[in-house]
Write a structure and sequence with these properties.
Layout: E1 8-12, H1 16-28, E2 32-36, H2 39-48, E3 53-56, H3 65-83, E4 91-95, H4 100-109, E5 113-116, H5 121-131
Parallel strand pairs: 1-2, 1-3, 3-4, 4-5
Helix pairs in contact: 2-3
């Protein structure tokens, strides 16, 4: 299993159980985990202290995960222009929507990976490691 020591992961999910499970798994592999139960809180976190990796549910109460990622990309562009600094938060969707059309929509929206719930622990940690530049996945998830 990859070490995630030093990797800051923002987990956005409206389900307390899902957030807690993902947080536990990632922390047990050394990651620092910040959680948000909705997209608006996630945006405030990204504005103040951008994480290294974003894991977001798609079905969020205030705006869906697609709009959240779109708004994060706008924030990234604003930061690039204001600070002349390039940064990008790699993201994976982690959702119960598992059909091929949902996977395709996630990828087209800008998520690098689509993880279907329930997920395997190894799949989650390898995806985060890949997004953080720690490991390369052999195949898209």
């Amino acid at each position: 299993m990859p070490s995630l020591h030093g990797v800051v992961v923002l987990v956005v999910d409206d389900s307390p159980d899902s957030r807690a499970l993902v947080e536990h798994v990632l922390r047990s592999h050394g990651a620092t985990v910040v959680t948000a139960e909705d997209a608006l809180k996630a945006l405030r976190i990204v504005e103040k202290s951008p994480p290294h990796v974003l894991l977001s549910d798609i079905g969020l109460p205030d705006m869906d995960g697609y709009e959240l990622l779109q708004r994060i990309r706008v924030l990234e562009e604003q930061k690039r222009q204001a600070e002349n600094k390039d940064f990008h938060i790699p993201a994976a969707a982690i959702t119960a929507n598992s059909g091929p059309e949902h996977v395709r929509k996630s990828i087209l929206a800008g998520y690098r990976f689509h993880i279907s719930k329930p997920f395997a622990i190894g799949e989650l940690t390898k995806t985060v490691a890949t997004l953080a530049g720690r490991e390369q996945l052999d195949a898209a998830i």
